[in-house]
From TrEMBL:
Pfam families: CsgG. This is Curli assembly protein CsgG. The keyword Calcium does not apply. Keywords: Cell membrane, Lipoprotein, Membrane, Palmitate, Signal. One of its GO terms (cellular component) is outer membrane-bounded periplasmic space. The keyword Nucleotide-binding does not apply.
Length: 241
């Protein structure tokens, strides 16, 4: 089976334990989530307040597209077992009967977030790139079309409602090259649905940069105790104490 991995993927050889997660669609609070889109309605299909956090089940909008990109990147990192978002429907049913602490059909971490900035033509340099992704961007020269996106992420334990990781990630780009790590973790083909209009544009790459950074942060910030499963979903034997 084609996994989408490439030699440029720093996680291609990772064979360690994985965490079980589900990725929700992201509500968008930015003004420019898409041509003709009323920002007050974007991500409106929200499961109320689960654990005090908005969880969107929207399909086909910018937030759902970013969730799809993140899902692809998480799978390609070899650090996560990712469950389909349809399991969120079960969480909604459980919340209606006051049983939010039940396990989410196998997933132990809910990854959600809010799009706080979405600028297909930012017109200026914003933020800095760091980690594995940032070095790929290179210098931003004047006169180039730039794009910028920012998302506030949260990782929530679905059994307890505890926020186990929270961080902000930005992505900026002025070109459309998806080579190297970007191509490995977030192939250009992942830009579907509402994001397809940004295929081969700076915003397409800015989204990939942001998602790539998010994967790095999730691997680094989610506590090691959640990484305890093999690729088949079975617990990895723990060393004897």
């Amino acid at each position: 089976m084609d996994t989408g991995l490439s030699p440029d993927n720093p996680y291609a050889t990772y064979t360690g334990p994985r965490a079980k997660v589900v990725v929700a669609s992201f509500p968008c609070k930015a003004e420019k989530c898409g041509p003709g889109v009323d920002s007050s309605q974007v991500g409106a299909a929200v499961l109320g307040k689960l654990f005090g956090i908005e969880v969107s089940t929207s399909k086909g909008d910018i937030g759902a597209g970013i969730a799809d990109m993140l899902t692809t990147a998480l799978i390609n990192s070899n650090h996560f077992i990712v469950y389909e978002r349809s399991v969120l429907d079960q969480l909604q049913k459980e919340s209606q009967i006051g049983n939010q602490a039940q396990q989410l059909q196998g997933a132990e971490i809910l990854i959600t977030g809010t799009i706080t900035a979405f600028e297909p033509d930012a017109g200026g340099t914003r933020g800095g790139g760091g980690g594995l992704i940032g070095g790929l961007l290179g210098a931003v020269t004047g006169g180039q079309k730039k794009a910028y996106v920012a998302v506030d992420f949260r990782a929530v334990d679905v059994r307890t409602g505890a926020v186990v990781a929270a961080f902000r990630v930005e992505g900026e780009a002025s070109d459309t090259d998806f080579g190297g790590l970007l191509g490995a973790l977030v192939p250009g083909a992942a830009l579907g649905g509402a994001l397809s209009q940004y295929q081969k544009t700076p915003m397409g790459k800015a989204l990939a940069v942001m998602v790539g950074k998010a994967v790095e942060e999730l691997i680094r910030r989610i506590p090691p105790s959640y990484f305890k499963y093999g690729p088949d979903g079975q617990p990895v034997p723990q060393p004897a104490k």
